[in-house]
Design a protein that fits this description.
The protein is an alpha/beta fold and 463 residues long. It has twelve helices and 26 strands. Helix 2 packs across helix 3 and helix 8 crosses helix 9.
Length: 463
Amino acid sequence: MPFLDKLHLWAAEHPHDTAVVVGRRRLTWAQLHHAATARLHDAAATTILAEPNSTGFIERYAAAVAGERRCAVLDPHWPSAMIDEVSSRITQPEIAAVDALRDGDPATTFLVGLTSGTTSVPKAFTRSRRSWQISFEASIEFFGLMQDDRTLAPGPLSASLNLYALSECLFAGASFHTLESFDVGDAHAAISHDGITRLVVAPTMLRLLSERGLAGDVDASGIRSIICAGSKLDGRTLEAARRWAPNAAIFEYYGASELSFVSGTRLAAGEPLDPGGTGIGRPFPGVELSILDDEGRHVPEGDHGNISVRSGMVSDGYLWGDDGHALRCLDGWYTVGDQGYVDDGVLHILGRKSDMIVTSGKNVYPHEVELALGSVPGVETAVAAGAPDDIRGQRVVAGVLPAYGAVTATQLRTGLDGLLARDKWPLQYFVLSEIPMTDRGKISRKVMLDWIKNHDPRAQILG
């Protein structure tokens, strides 16, 4: 792993400075280096980590990627049968013994990543040490990470967003903070007491921290940057974050587990967001971006197709789960099938092709409808889908979870005016009593359509 040689350097140069904090547990650079070294004898050729956040997790993670060893980080909340199944599929390669905390050959695999697929068992892909070293150099440049930054990523380290933030900080020599489990009050306490300067969060978490921080008068003026990923920022979240952390630059980026970073944008303190827009910045440092059709041909600017990249950050491919529609290589360009277009150099994301709604011959992506509805005042969450229609083939329907009080169809239509082309507006609206989810905790358009079809009380039609 490309942070171990750096960890050795920081332990020598700044032995008593804080390296990592998990809840109330704190390790200096020297302590982390010593503890990880002591765990080397327990690390296998491939270590399976499926446990909550702790300093022990970080020590084991560092030891697990020493030399040419590799690590698979699994969600500890998965059913035990799934953890056992994934673990049994990961083979133990033959590797040389290692007795020191050092990086291995840059071309070798250090991480087995897991990503959800169409089957019950997640797909497994691999990453080389070199791919993350290139990613670190690009993200440190783009986000402006400095050694005096104190980064808080309060989510689980089993999530790639947080695992990467930890690794990036170890590489850069900047202190990393997290929680044993996410709690808004604990996150606010860390921000106040540890002098956090940088947040790494998903948009839903940012909204919680910002809105409750404003209500509780939690001072976030010392935060210099907020990094968001996982979904597009909506206007309500940005407005709350702006008021709560007025001095922070807000970054949002698009990437995929298999591709790493693709594009991103930086909103300086006070800079407005395009509400309901699909744009998510320009190509990341070191990334070539193009929009290709299914045959690998470049499409004209403004036309949509497969978002495709060439970069040194792309993963090495799959151990299992490749259905031919996941990571594909089109004449040297890599894509995971996300659809989008480029306008004036800015990438706009539309979503997966399989999610596209064809209504009266018009292509509508649920993602763009959801982004627009999510910017309407009073909407907490929006889900759009294509329902069967005898005349149109499909019709666009949308369910909304109100942020507070009640919401009407008239409010929603009025709010969409100017945000979304009229021929993409939903023909029916439903108020949701809860977010439709899969059994793995992801928002599901199919579940919402089932509710609508079966007249489930969790989806009530709006007049």
